Amino acid sequence: VRLTVEGGGDSRRDYLYVQDAVDAIINAVDYKMPEQFISFDVCSGKKYTLKQILGLLKKNWRGEMKVEYVKKSQTPWRFRVNNKSTQTQLQWKPQVSLEKGIVKMLG
Question: Which residue, of 24, 28, 55, 63, has the fewest CB within 10 Å?
Fold first, then answer.
């Protein structure tokens, strides 16, 4: 497989296994909402660079993987999320680590 990456692979993102997101949504549906609106950050709370993701993919891929880096076309975006209140109020916590999620995904 051949992958093309914009930039140097140093951008950081928060990744969450889909079943962990589903579990958080189910807990949110069952949550007794007070009269005021509450938003929940559903995230792992850990940031990984694209290089780290690619390293895990290469480690668990059954075959050859080539990565080509190309010049970035736009300014990177940044965001900040914090799942502490989500963990407390919804009694939820991500269960699947990034590496375990990649292994499951690659099956």
Answer: 63
